[in-house]
Amino acid sequence: MSKLPHIGTSIFTVMSQMASEHNAINLSQGFPNFPVDERLTSILTGLAKENIHQYTPMSGLPSLLEKITNLTNQSYQRIISPKEEILITAGATEGIFATIQALVKTNDEVIILDPCYDCYEAPILLSNAKPIRISLSDDFTPNWEKIANATNKNTKLIIINNPHNPTGKTWTENDFLQLEKLVDAYPNLHVLSDEVYEYITFEQKHISVHHRPKLWEKSIIIGSFGKSFHITGWKVGYVIAPENLMIEIKKVHQFLVFSVSSIAQHAINEYINLVDVNAIGKFYQQKRDFFQNLLKDTKLKLMPCEGTYFQVASYASISNENDIDFTKRLVTEFGVATIPISTFYANNKDNKYIRFCFAKDDKTLIQAAERLRKL
Fold first, then answer.
1. Is 312 helix (H, G, I), strand (E, B) or coil?
2. What is d(CA 299, CA 313) in angstroms, rounded to the nearest whole number?
């Protein structure tokens, strides 16, 4: 008997497989196709011959924990304890899974804001808890009236994702004021803040839970070196949480993966001394602007992109097809793979939106745009 009977193959896997079968340009799955920084590969090559290939401590390489402490202070002026408040995880997904498994119990409720990334619901269901799916407003901002009405004494977590995948939306000061008000009203409510795109924001700079002292004691924040440093396949993320919550998260982590790739941790530990995280957003803003300019001559209507490396577009003026059928035809007839936004909703809400990943080299984006102009 399946514990997750309604969950099938991820849409990301489906679209990537279709892209491969039809020799299409893959702008669906969220990974870069350009080379990794040569400074990082050089560090990795040098480390391969050193005696660093056995387990690191369960919480993470101590020197890397210190680096995350310094990075958090540098980025957000928040001081955290490297020993008690940070955990290195096997990607952000493991951090999210371990957090939910550690903190959410049978009959608890967890608020998820749709459209949402697909890794949130499964660990809630595996905890015998109840996911409460609430749609964002049409402009992809939080509907605080709906959120407040759905919150009660059984609500253990609200999961927020800022900057937001799939829409590229970022939260405002008012959103955080409303969140603080909600947390104040419910003593049992905690915040799981997925901030894996924290360094990829554009005109409006990222506002983090790290900026909100009122939320610190009730919040778990997820980060990702994979996203920030263009090394998604390394699967190295991190969790920041107050000690009383981190104790419980570490209990799950130690029996889930115990520790994370030693050579990856050592390499990131050295690389972090060389990289300017403030340059990451500028790099992707150039990518966004380049891609948006390429699509100006298409019939697609581009939605605002304030962060992440995803661009949402409406195809409503092109076709009345549902978004799944449209994206499949886009692969088979036009040779471009994208993601249908309806798959990020519990109710499969279809607004005729598709998501592009523009974390690609210029040649790939140019070729994709040439094909999309034929729509």
1. strand
2. 10
